[in-house]
Structures are given as structure tokens and as C-alpha cells.
């Protein structure tokens, strides 16, 4: 592909696809896209950089004929645009192929991978590099608040990218991150996830082992040290390997963690010797570990601990990661991108440390391909039980999950109530807003857990509280 060509992205509102669209536009291509239903934050982001998004999918969106079509991994046969592309023999590519060809091949890729934490860790690492003057390019699966963007194309030699283990495209079912050919990686965690494409945990581990096997001898792997699954995935590494965590023998050991209402602080020992003291505004042990991993890899690239400390002190977060959406009369509404029981547990535990005196609500939409399946029913009960009140909505598009595999929301609710936890199911966002809003009181914290638009609940709930309390949302 050459500049001045017209590139159309099918499924453009996915976080990675929207980021690629921005990168391509910055390179000078004419970029258009389409999606079934655009929703914030990516829809707002695309509008801000003047990339048109056609809705819904239709053959007309491909007229005039683009030079190349990028097919998102959520797009499958039967999509009217994909069928038109195949019928008309319009050249098409996957996101990772285009990304490598135009951006990664001429830079040094640094990949952050793992079942959990990779979006925030990628954002932290990019911010540390930027603050240290290394001018990195990056792509992350969310809006990194320090940059106000999910991507950047800069002059530095490094490209920091979130490595997604999900499949590449309808014609390439391997994980995206195998296309990135990293020089170095961070591996935060390995658990069973993406039950729609991975048969079991062993299949997930094979994908991560293959990623590890791509790192050259001159590279570096920074890996979490309290997971047997991670241990198995990095055991065959050909490059130097350093482990981080809270064990006494961790190469990068986290100590002296303190959780306060507005900040979290901790110290890091490097091979048993004090190396740095860090603090930032984020909550939760998992974010302390994410930041420590980013700091460890930054040190490999010659960034001094003082520069890392300064960067983390002003690190904000990523949109939809423990994001405070509104505060109405002392009620705090939190948005978090929930995709897995472990992530839900970490989110709710982080809110417990940040708001220890508050009544904590979990409003959960089973939406991800894993959470819509019954494989994690028991784990969901354990995760959601951290909250004081639990509301579960009907699973998203249940007809797309075979009935024998489908999550039974009533089984989760029964498990919660049997353990003494108030829990109930409400049909949709509108029913939740109408029922729950009158029950909320000052001091409550409401965690909205979904990896999608959730029927506009993020806007509807604060608006309803404003009507009930007579106070505008912050």
C-alpha cells in the first residue's frame, strides 16, 4: 500500500481498529470505516480526528471502491460488507498485517501481553518512555488519558503495543500478537479466557509460549512471578528473563504498599536492594504490579528510576479502567471494562481499598464471549461477592451462545444469595436505572462492569440521579 490510497476499516470502533485508523490517517491515507453501532469512547475519538463512521454495515459503505479493506477480527462471513469485498475481489488485510507492514517493521516493537492488565501497563510504559524523552510510538486498547489518545506515531525508534491474544481475522485464527515480532515483552498473567476461540487453558498457554519464542536473544522478558501458568509459558525463553512480584526472591520485589484515599505508594527492591519509591493516583494491588512491570522494562531501556518515579506520579489512567464517570450528591459512578472474573475481582477489591467505608454496588452485564458462557459461573459468584449489592442484567445477545454453553444468570444470583449477598437480575439498563437509582444514597460507590455500551447506562444513571436529587452530575 502507498500513501494517498483509500483504506476502509470494517469494525472500526473496536479499540485497536480505531487506533489503526488514526495511525493510517496520520501517515496520509484516506481512511473511512463502518460499524454496527458506534459508542464512546472510540466513537467520540474517531469523530475528533475526522474519520467518518458509517452505520450499520452495508455494501453502500464501500462505494466508491476503496483500494484496501482492513477486516476487523469481530467480522465474520455473512457481514454484508465482507461479502461484497469477497465478491468484488477488493484487496483485504488483517489489522496486525497492516500494523506490522507500515509501523512495526521499521521500529523496535515492545509488546505488553497477558490476560489482564495489558492496556494499563502499555499506557504506563508509553508514558514513562515519553516522559524520559524517548518519543515512542504506541498503540493501546483504550484511550490513554495522559496522551488523550489510543495511539501515537512519533520519531523515536520504539513502538510500544498492547499484545492481544485474541484471533486476528476470519481468515487467520491465530493470535494478533504473533504478528508483532517483539524485541521485548511484559507478561502480566495467563488465564483461560476467550472461550469462543480457545478450547481450554492449555490452548491459551500455547499461544503465549509462541509469543515468548519470538523474542530474540538480545531481547528481554519481564514476567509476573506468582503464576504457575506464567512460569510454564516463559520456561523456554532464549533471552534474559526477569520476574516481578511480591515474593522475597523476586528480581523486582514490591514492598511497603500503602493505600490512601487519593493515592497509592510502594517501594521496589531490585535483586534485594532498594531501587525506587513510587506513588500514583491509581487504586489496587494489580495496578501496583502493572506499574512495577513497566518500571522494570523501562530500566532495561536505560531509563533512570528518578524519571520513572516522576512519570508515574502524574500518570492518570485509561478510559474505562476504574474511570469515575460522575458524582451526584455523594454517589460515585465508576466505569470498568470487565471481561473476566479475575478482572472483576481485582476491580472490586481496588474499590474496597479506595473507598473502605462505602457501600459498594456491582452492576454487571455479561457481555464478553467468556462471561456469556457458564465456564466461569462459580468464579463469577466469588468475584461479585466482594460487592455489597449485586445487580446482573440479561446476558448480551444470548442467541449467539449455544444454550448448553450459556451462562445462567440465575445460577450466579442463587450462588450469591446463598452466601448472604443481596443479588438480583434486572432486564436491561433502563430497568436498572429506574430500580436502583432510588435506592442509592450518599457515600455509595457504583461499579458498572461491562466491556460494551451497556444500553447507555453510563449516561442514564447519573441523569436519573440528577432528576431525583436535583443536583447536576460532576
Stretches with pLDDT under 50, minimum 5 residues: none
Q: Gyration radius, to the nearest Å?
A: 22 Å
CATH architecture of the largest domain: 3-Layer(aba) Sandwich
Strand content: 15-25%
Q: What is the topology, as strand order, of the major beta sheet? A: 8-7-9-6-12-13-14-15-16-17
Write down the overall geometry.
globular
Helical segment count: 14
What do you see in this structure?
It is a single chain. This protein has 474 residues and is α/β, with parallel strands linked by helices. It has helices at 15-27, 42-48, 80-88, 95-104, 118-131, 201-212, 228-234, 285-300, 305-313, 341-354, 377-384, 409-418, 429-436, 457-469; strands at 6-10, 30-34, 53-54, 68-71, 92-94, 108-113, 137-144, 149-152, 158-163, 167-169, 172-175, 184-187, 220-224, 241-245, 252-259, 264-270, 273-280, 323-328, 331-336, 360-364, 389-393, 423-426, 445-449. The chain has 3 domains: 6-95, Rossmann fold, CATH 3.40.50; 107-313, 3-Layer(aba) Sandwich (UDP-N-acetylmuramoyl-L-alanine:D-glutamate ligase); 323-469, Mur ligase, C-terminal domain (Protein-Tyrosine Phosphatase, Chain A). The longest helix is centred in the middle third of the chain and has 16 residues, at 285-300. The model has no long low-confidence stretch (mean pLDDT 93). It has 14 helices and 23 strands. It has a 10-stranded mixed sheet, with helices on both faces. Strands 18-19-23-20-21-22 form a 6-stranded mixed sheet, sandwiched between helices. Strands 3-2-1-4-5 form a 5-stranded parallel sheet, with helices on both faces.
